[in-house]
Amino acid sequence: MSHHIVEVKNLQHIYSDGTAAIKDVSFIITHGESVGIIGANGAGKSTLLQHLNGSLEPTGGSIHIGHTPLTKGTLPDIRRTVGMVFQDPDDQLFMPTVFDDVAFGPLNLGYTPADVEERVTEVLELVGAGHLRDKPPYHLSGGEKKRVAIATVLSMSPDILVMDEPTNGLDPFARRQLIKLMRDFKHTRIFTSHDLDMVLELCNRVIVLHEGVVRADGPTLEIFNNDKLLSECRLEKPFSMQGCPVCSSAIK
Amino acid sequence: MASIHKAVLDLKSLDLLANGNSSVHRLDARAKVLVSLVFILCVVSYGRYELAVLFPFFIFPIVMISMAGLPPLFILKKILLLCPFVLAVGIFNPVFDRQILLHLGPLGISGGWVSFASILTRSILTVGTGFILVGVTGFTAVCQALEKLGMPRVFAVQLLFLYRYIFVLTEESGRASRARELRSCGKKGLGIHSFSSLVGHLLLRTWQRAERIHMAMLARGFTGEFHASRQSGFGMPEIRFALIWSTLFIFLRLQNVPQLLGSLITGLNP
Amino acid sequence: MHMADALLSPTVGGTMWAVSAGTIAFCSRKIRRDTDDSKIPLMGVLGAFIFAAQMINFTIPVTGSSGHLGGGMILAILLGPYAAFLTIASVLMVQALFFADGGLLALGCNIFNLGFFPAFIAYPFIYKKMIGSQPSVTRLTVASIIAAIVGLQLGAFGVVLETIFSGISSLPFPTFVAVMQPIHLAIGIIEGLVTASVVSFVYKARPEIMQSAMESHPIGSYSVRSVALAFLVAAIITGGIVSWFASTNPDGLEWAITKVTGKEELDGPKQGLHAALSTLQERVSFLPNYAFKKPAEATNVVIEHTQPLPSVQTGQKAGAATSHFETTVAGLVGGASTLVIAFLIGAILKRRGQTEYAKKRSEQTGNCKP
Ligand SMILES: Nc1ncnc2c1ncn2[C@@H]1O[C@H](COP(=O)(O)OP(=O)(O)OP(=O)(O)O)[C@@H](O)[C@H]1O
Ligand SMILES: [Mg+2]
User: Looking at the 3D structure of chain A, how many domains does it have?
Assistant: First the structure.
């Protein structure tokens, strides 16, 4: 299934005000991988992700999704392949009700109303938001919004799932639910997060971004064991790897 | 700020009312929009000195409120905040129109007061009908109904976006102005300069949000077409609802019911 | 200065509805055809922004009282005439439905007064002309202020004309104009100042926004032509109303003129549509005589209106007064009874609704039990 490969080559992005958010980023992610992109605030994670479905245009370098270069002409196809969950769910939920919102994508893909209905019901159950179906988005809590936002993307059955801080603002139960959901997703997953425990749990590979460049790219455990690298990039070990001071002292 | 802030809160509660599930709520929105328009047209078509003939029209808001289970006090309170412009203009009627129009025994009442009372009554009826329409239908459904009745889709979609983001943006601006108040150490006014930078920032953030929303739409296969997802039918209940009410309004408009009833009760013949 | 249902006649309200609906349809088609679809969410979100911005008050210089942004001019500057018109219309629609600003019938008037003038008159003919191709902060400020003043003056004049033509208010035209125009002059100056300061903030922070706003709707011959066309249509429709007034009532035109010149301050409702409807009423009604003496019926009464209220029972009219008294009492008693009946029906329905609801609920909870 080579069409799920994501290849980023010497990507560069300079915002119109002159901020160089991405200076030089290259990596290849193959099918079925689950990759966490971590880094301090302002490291360029969101900027990087927004390139993957053409929301931002690179100022330098190139992106291939499944060997297809990302250009204006290939954009519609690529957007169908890459499902993107934005950082702020309010940007993603713009329709009058949760149902309409989740149905927006499938309707654009030309599904029949019956198929849309089925699809929407299915994904809402999947993210545990079935009961919210007829509510307007502005009457939802932050975590509920997030779950519905994820449903809007899943409803289009993407081959590559890209999420910007998916667990941000979720309660522990919903977070757990989301982690399970992402583990069950069969295709490529790429996400950014400050929730390093989730990264540890879900990813076999981590890319560390620092001031617009890739500082490290490798197996999760290897990176989280490199204390020097972590502190240089304003990061920490996940809590579960730090060892609980209370319990460990009790054992000793 | 307080008043608009409150208005937005009210807007939320009015919007929640529309989630009800009474027989009126379930009707297709088009029927309710049409009936409301016929109602308003009938009410405003009376001459300026007509007052008692307006009273029978209260049957519509009252029946709607009770059938739909809307909270009467909430609606009443909202109606009583009558548009100040109406009051400001209406109060001039007694000033300029002093001719005695009506004799209640020794007491003469001027045309101005009669027409002022008429304006107030119209105001209550028309404003109340607007609130009730939203309360039993919901803004979204009203928009969709208007679209089916011929409103351009671009405009309908735009209305939906507007309504969706009122909540997000008013909260944002509420936070911004609260943050400013907290740092202004009790100084009251906001000068034009700091106002424009506060509002300007809000505007820029809004603009960026619009760009992100557009990206999110594109990311989900948006090609400029909006697809209607739900079909609702204009069936028998809707036809019945529209016919019964419209007939009643037109009947009331053509017949002076208070006069008929009054002469029956009092035995006075005109 | 929202126009309200209660002050409107169906003719004026209906005409303005038609005019505004036509303009909305026209603008929607323009937007659909000429602009990219990123503008649709932008228009919606900027409409919501107007509500948000109105929550923030500023101190009005000199007076010390506080005011807030109106928003019409700022939308025109940022979005161009067509998108701005639609956005203003949508803001007004939300205000009509939720904030009781105006009403459903008055919506047509309000969209025209507050949308058409800033978007299609003040923006293209004043703001754009004054700004030219090299905007500077001074130019921007002056242009915004003058454009806002002109837009609001025209809008306020629209309100006056609509009110006068409707004939529900007794305000004489000169008084009304003398009150409305100066108030809106003050509002216009402030609106222009605030608009200019926000716009120049945006211009400094993100010049490309303003640049694209200016490029996307050049003041070519086309837009002038379409504005002229819209004007022509409006003129024809207005002319239509006036001549209709004249034809249904021989002295309708004269009435309009006396209204406008303010010579005769008091006049009855028996003109135009009111006359048509009340003759209709007289024809079909069993009891056509309504208790309220209409001044047009009793022309000999007109002299009285300058006298103080209680001293009116003159001998010549005592007889008429008694019979009027009877019909009045009948009318009022009847009116009150209809109100009581309406409330009774409401109460009964409410009772029934509640028992039904309770029944349904008990059924549902019954079903849900494991
Ligand atoms: N629209 C923009 N215009 C100009 N600069 C921007 C814009 N968006 C982001 N930046 C800048 O680009 C850099 C990277 O931002 P980005 O949002 O990608 O960071 P991030 O890694 O996602 O941070 P966080 O963890 O806080 O979400 C930051 O320095 C930021 O200030
Ligand atoms: Mg980010």
Answer: 1
A8 lies in which domain range? 2-92+157-251
Q: Judge whether A150 lies within some domain.
A: no
Instruction: Answer with the residue of higher pLDDT: C350 or B144.
Output: B144
Thinking of the domain C5-275+316-361, which architecture would CATH place it in?
Orthogonal Bundle (1.10)
Rounded Cα–Cα distance for residues A146 and A85 (Å): 9
Find, among A152, A145, A186, A151, the residue nearest to A168 by Cα.
A145
pLDDT at B25: 87
Share of chain C above pLDDT 90, in %: 12
Mean pLDDT calculated for residue range C240-245: 48
The span from the CA of C166 to the CA of B89, in Å, is: 13
| ipTM (interface pTM) | 0.86
- How many residues are given for chain C? 370
What's the pLDDT tens digit per position in C175-188?
888 888 888 888 88
CA distances from B137 to A94, B8, B42, B70, B202 (A): 20, 18, 21, 12, 32
Question: Is residue A126 domain-resident?
Answer: no
Q: Which segment of A36-40, B141-145, C61-65, C164-168 scores lowest on mean pLDDT?
A: C61-65
The pLDDT tens digits of the residues spanning C338-359 come to: 777 777 777 777 666 656 555 5
* Chain A residue at shortest CA distance from B171: A138
- Are residues C325 and B81, on separate chains, in Cβ contact within 8 Å? no
Query: Would you list the DSSP string of chain A?
Result: -GGG-EEEEEEEEE-TTS-EEEEEEEEEE-TT-EEEEE-STTSSHHHHHHHHTTSS--SEEEEEETTEE--TTTHHHHHHHEEEE-SSHHHH--SSSHHHHHHHHHHHTT--HHHHHHHHHHHHHHTT-GGGTTS-GGGS-HHHHHHHHHHHHHTT--SEEEEESTTTT--HHHHHHHHHHHHH--SEEEEE-S-HHHHHHH-SEEEEEETTEEEEEEEHHHHHT-HHHHHHTT----HHHH--HHHHHHH-
CB contact under 8 A, C6 and B199: no
Count CB pairs under 8 A between chains B and C. 465
Residue A15 resides in a domain: yes
Q: What average pLDDT does the segment B129-147 reach?
A: 88
Tell me the residues of A at the B interface, defined by beta carbons under 8 Å apart: 50, 53-55, 75-76, 79-80, 82-84, 86, 88, 90-97, 99-100, 103-105, 107-109, 113, 116, 134, 136-139, 152-153, 156
A61 falls within a domain: yes
- Residue A246 pLDDT: 63
Read off the CATH number of the domain in which A193 is found.
Answer: 3.40.50.300
**C-beta atoms surrounding B219 within 10 Å:** 27
DSSP-assigned letters across all residues of B195-238 = HHHHHHHHHHHHHHHHHHHHHHHHHTT--S-----------HHH
Paired with A12 in beta bridges are: A60
